[in-house]
Amino acid sequence: MRVNGRRADAEKELRAALRREVPAAVALRRELHAWPRVSGHEGPTLERVLGGLLGVFPGSLSGPAVERVAGTGAVLRIGGPGPCVAVRGELDALPMDESTGVAWAATNGAMHSCGHDVHLAAVVALARAVARTQVSAVHEGRAAPAGEPFAPPLLVVLQPREESQPSGALDVVGSGVLERHRVHAMVGAHVQPLLPAGTVACTPGAVNASADAFTVTVTGAEGHAAYPHLTRDPVLAMAQVIVSAQQIVSRFADPMVPTVVTFGTVNAGTAPNAVPREATARGTLRTMSPGFRDRMCRRFVQVVEDTARSYGCAAEVELRYGEPVLVNDPLLTAETGELLRAHGWEVTDELRSCGADDFARYGEVARSLMMFVGVDTEAGLHSPAFLPGDDSVGAVAEVLLAGYLAAASSGRFGDHTVEAATEAARREGHQTHT
Fold first, then answer.
1. Is 313 assigned a ligand-binding role in the annotation?
2. How high is the pLDDT of residue 215?
3. What is the pTM assigned to this prediction?
4. Is 222 annotated as a binding residue?
5. For the chain, domain boundaries
């Protein structure tokens, strides 16, 4: 990726501004961590983040207008008209009791155990750095050369309900706000304890799986445990359903495509000496192949129904479609990786996971890139002991900056906006999820 002198100076200015913002962002991270809010109740978190963002803007800067979206979310635009680059920060926490023991641990029955406090603070640091450089350019009478938007408008997407359904990202896309702001690219970053600090996974193509939830209800005939021949046992049928469903992975899915069937809960009966009438189970279906997703779901229903029938029972399957496969744009991924390497980061393109993230929704309407940033912590994601160090705030901010700069430097900047993607989807007969 070639960088001219003017753009190189702008990037240098942005990086310096970002470094100056990090200490305040670390303090914000600790404050957000101490007072988390679960999905659907993120209002106080949103207001605190907006307060940190709005304080940087003098009256001379265009905007910023805050638009409320998805109930407890908002977007804020930094810069003038035209195509923009968007970054996402997740507002919600998980309902769990924290066990880190730090002075700023949460005590309200919720916890940022997935790193959303770090992500939000990093987004604020980046946004403030971009705002300050644009303010400086306005005051000094500088502007980007025609056709070379080295500091294009930035749309900050403060998204609720990443950890629950209905998806916050789905509602953001459905609101039309990305289309109105002509989003050219969407950039996100997530802390990842599977990677060492100083390493970033910047992987092209599919990086997270689709995730669809199911509820299976098997109905039989109840009776005394001593007379099984007079019953139709839904527990036995459910046990065989669980075993048979795993063969979807081993004998129906392409072995080169990661696919997972998980039964997370199984419930039946109230007495040890009675055969119950009903057994229920819940779980998820995951695949890294968008094309296999629907076939997998249909096969699952068929296997469940046929297996239960073979034991004299009936089965009902309720499927709730969740997040699609998260696919990183290859060109944006390559250019961001190049920038990261140039600034001393160890970059890998091998990390993929059958985890799911509603960030995938943004990839359906714009170029998108989700990166994973290594952090030093013994506890894993969603653990009550998960606590990345304060240095992770600056690390995630630097990674987001690389994605922003790569999107801005792309020779295709502005060519692939939400309007174009939506219109293309309509022509192909594939409506965007709303």
1. no
2. 98
3. 0.88
4. no
5. 5-207+325-427, 210-323
